[in-house]
Design a protein that fits this description.
Blueprint lengths: L4 E6 L9 E8 L2 E9 L4 H15 L6 H12 L5 E9 L4 E7 L2 E7 L2 E5 L16 E4 L5 E6 L16 H12 L6 E7 L10 E2 L1
Helix pairs in contact: 1-2
This protein binds manganese (II) ion.
Manganese (II) ion binds next to loops.
Amino acid sequence: MALNIGYAMLPLAGEPVCGDQGGWWQLPERRVLALADGLGHGRHAADAAAQAMQAVEAHLALDCEGIFSACDARLRGTRGAALVVAIIDLRCNTLSVAAIGNIRIILLSEGRQRRLGGGRGIVGAGYAALAPETLALRAGDVLALFSDGIDEFATLHDCLEGGVQAGAEQVLARWGNGRDDSSILCYQHDPNDRGGDDQRA
Ligand SMILES: [Mn+2]
């Protein structure tokens, strides 16, 4: 895994599969991160989330609107999912991020933690008002995408001493609520990132 990516997930107790899935992809000047929470839990939720990751992977060069549109088309016939997609542009040091449904985005920049919003709806069953935001990224900024199996928390900074992978694991351990599948995908911005392997988990 790339050093600046952290991922942790845990299925709801008793479920053999996780209905949340995260993915990250490294293009020459672009990183794409996505996290999907298939509605409910279990096999059908996992199927919706897996198809969302496949649709993202097939459309990595598009902007947020294009990726969401592709995912919405692909997920028709599934249970649907909440989805967040983040595109990091390494030439401009910008983040474009958008979300639909009950899924969370935190940006920690220069010590300040900010919650970014998403639109209502279900990917695969239609949504309105997708509102991608584009923000400047500074070296060291941390983006955290997480599902509703993790409670809101205000202290991401305190979890990052050991890096983003340890941080993702710590957030899940501390704020995972045990009521749903839970997952968190973290990215730490490095303008000189030379990339590693794509991963889907
Ligand atoms: Mn959920």
